[in-house]
Amino acid sequence: MAEIAGDTIRYGYCCKDVTREEIAWLKTLGTDVYFDLLYTKITREKVELALEHGVNVEAWIINDFESIIRLSEMGVTGFTTDYYMLDNCIF
Predict the structure, then answer these.
(1) What would the pLDDT profile of 8-55 be if each residue is shown by its tens digit?
(2) 4, HSE (Cβ side, Cα atoms, 13 Å)
(3) Reported pTM
(4) 57 part of a folded domain
């Protein structure tokens, strides 16, 4: 897809970890890339490493408001949920 679409698509990489090698690979796909991590595997260190290299971190599947607040304070920028009651809970 990256070869066909270039920078016209946002790429999220669903995974459980962030490494320098994965950051380098992900950035080859385009300029709008992010890690989409299982929320229970997110640590401050993983978020800081990704952000240091210009890659955002999003969380999946998260259904409790307290964890969303805690992760957003760490720098996580997006959340996937299947709990409709969280609609408009932050803004």
Answers:
(1) 788 899 988 999 999 999 999 888 999 999 999 999 999 999 999 999
(2) 1
(3) 0.83
(4) yes
**Burial class of residue 74 (count of CB atoms within 10 Å of its CB; 0-12, 13-18, 19+):** middle
Q: Is residue 63 part of a domain?
A: yes
User: CA angle, corner 54, sides to 81 and 80, nearest 5?
Assistant: 5
Residue labelled with tokens 């259904």: 63
- Range of the structural domain that residue 66 is part of: 6-76
- Rounded CA-CA distance 68/85 in Å is 13
DSSP label of 8: G
Question: CA end-to-end span of the chain, whole Å?
Answer: 33
Contact, 13 vs 35, CB < 8 A? Answer: yes
Does residue 85 lie within any of the structural domains? Answer: no
